[in-house]
Amino acid sequence: MTKTISSYSINKQLIPNYLIKELNVSKMSDDLKHNLLKDGYLFIRNIYSKEDIKNAKDFILKHLHKVGEVKDPYYDGIFSGLSFRRKIYPTKFELGKFWQKISESNQLRKVINGKEITNLFENIFKEKVAHFSFAWLRAVIKGKASPLHIDHPYMNRGTDKILSCWTPLSSIKKNEGTLFILKNSHNWQDIKENFLDHDIDLNQNKPGHILENTLDLVFRKKSFFLTSNFEPGDCLIFGMFTVHGSFDNNTTTGKIRLSCDTRFQPYSEPMDHRFSGENPSAHRGLGYSCLTSSTPLTENVKNK
Question: Are the beta carbons of 231 and 44 closer than 8 angstroms?
Answer without folding.
Answer: no
